[in-house]
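Worked Example 4.2. Consider the chain below.
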Amino acid sequence: MGQEVISSVKVEGNRFVADEEVLKLLGLEPGVLYSPDLIYSAVKRAYLQGAFEFIAVYRSETPEGVALLVKVKDLPVVYDVEFVGNRKIKDEDLRRILGIPENPQELAEEQTAYISGPAVEEKLQIQRMVPIGRPLTLKEIEEMARQIELYYAYKGYPGTKVRYEIVPVKGASKLVFRIEEGREKWVSDIRIEGLKTLDEDEVKSVMELKEPNWLLFRFHPPFSEELLRYDAENIEKFLKEKGYFEGRVVSYNATTEKDGATTVVIRVHEGPRYKVSKVEISGNTYFGYAELTEKFFKKLKKEKGYYDQKLVDLLKEEILQKYRNLGLYFTRVLVRPEPDPQTKTVKLVVVVEESRPVYNRWTEVRGNYETRDYVIRRELELHEGDLVTEEKVRWSKIWLNRLGYFAGTEVSVEPLEGSYAKTTVKVTERFTGQFSVGIGYSETSGLSGFVSLRKGNFLGTGDIVGLTLSFGEYAKNYSFSYTRKWFMNRPQDLSFKVYQSENDYETYDVKYAGFSTTLTRRFWHYWRWHVGLDLQSIDYDNVSPDASVYVKEAAQFNSATIIRWGVARDTRNSYLFPSDGSYLAFNERFGGLLGGDAKFAKVWVVGSIHRKDEWFDSGTIVNLKGQVGAVGPWGGENVVPIDERFFVGGDFTIRGYKYGYAGPLDPNTGDPIGATKMWVVNFEVDYPVKENLFYLAAFADAGNGFNQWADAFQSVKAGAGFGIRFVTPMAPIRLDFAWKLKKVPGDTDNFRIHLILGSFF
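Applying the procedure from the previous section yields the following structure tokens:
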């Protein structure tokens, strides 16, 4: 019997996938030699593509050969979704909860365009994470509809019904969700009954349901039964965590008015609060009892001996940290509370399972498609052969995050055989090319705009290239910069910058153009030193006859060569709005040593401390900042350039005063002329209305700008007031209402408003 040839192939039953696509997925076409194995392989291959619920192939013989009939039940290839009937919730919110962005396939291609070579399979996996642009089963579509209904319930619209239909198009289809929105329910009041010692607001803080709050623009907070049940569980968990081991939620109910306003009543049985009777620790051979419990008992004393889960977690973490920093990285700590209903106390039983010392056998770097391996490895403090400690793991992650090249970093340690471990460094790269356009405002520059082009991680080397254009009412700045990271394979950066700046003051204009280079070296964990050189030309113009004599003196300078150096220690948890840590910096500028007209020596010290309230756990941030500086001339001219003087008063020194008016004034014009010496102290308290978003502030500033040390505390200036702080993704906003406590000539108003877009304190 001779070999049979497929003469024709016909497709039936396909609603969404075109005939040509079905045959392409099967790999069948006329002219191919027929065999049962061929049909089996074709059907198997098509099923694996996930585009069909059912495939059957029927054969019939014709004079021309074998005719095939392919019957399929295909799944829709959904290219996009559409929402109909949603008035209360926006399309973008529904897309977000379904994980479907605008133009999903284009976005997936953009996010994976740089992935090639052996990472192609990972690229496909990332693209499959977008839930459309591929065949969808009815189960998947029904789950999407359920997610929409749940989201509506969560937002306070229970009873919402979602139907769907597929608008078929050969090759791709649209999925349309038709939404019948339920009646709105919102929380008008929450009452917690049965409390004896706990504060009602403290209990409410653990709830997902919230009451209206005009300050937070929360006018109709949503109500849902699901959240109420969840909150009841949260409250019971909270009671146990606070030491109320007999505490429970007795009942909860909600009453809804015609307008949807819902009153929630939760009745609680609080019971007695248990105290910690003792802490028993076993299995510890490397550390003594007092070493492991010292911090715990100090905190417990502040809590008057009462049990608190936060303290238990602190005890466990302290023990783990001690062992991990000793190199016993895989030590386990189990803490079991044993409450005694008779004495109303709880005993903490702590079991320590000590591990042997752990050494890093090798380090694997994953997820870096653009960044070269060495850029990541040089930031790590944990290397092959090292003893694994928590300190090395933590700082490895800190250095990687500070690069700013990754959307996420993870440093994990996995046990191997014996005393060895493997370290896996996984990074998620972000687009490091940035184009920024924005606006800012300050007294010195006025309203200003900027355009910034910045490419971090240039060519995957970690280097940074930047171009900045800034233009304001009184100032313009242009610069191009390049930073070579890890210069000479050391933890140091070498930066070059070409710049031009123009400042327009009331009685004169000044323009600077030049070149600067800076070498910055980090040492230990929190310290940095820097040394730099500026070569600049200086051009004073439009000097008014009324200008200060100091301006006229400075106008003689045409060039400057400035040597810069300094050292700083920075432990702040944020550069823009710190809530913990400290900053201390010593800086020096020396002009004229290597040439140039301007000959001066300037030194100043800046320090700040930031602490979050730990006594009442209110989230309040206390800030204290101080600075002191001096500048003097050297050489024959005996003149300090006016732009190197200290202008005390204004946004960043003493609020309540205009810029420079808390220092010396020209006796003829009344304009600030800057001081050769200064000191300033700032105290500020920031209270969170919405933590990490909106704060109320109270502040007091004091200081002085003067020319002789004997006058340091003569005629001290001070200001005080209150303000608001908005932490926005674009830029933090500071608005202060300040009163000066001492009037000065030329600035006699008692009150002044300070607006800053940018860093805070």
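The chain has six domains: 6-74, 78-180, 186-269, 275-353, 359-429, 567-757. Residues 6-74 form a domain with the Ubiquitin-like (UB roll) fold (CATH 3.10.20.310). Compare this with Example 4.1 before moving on.
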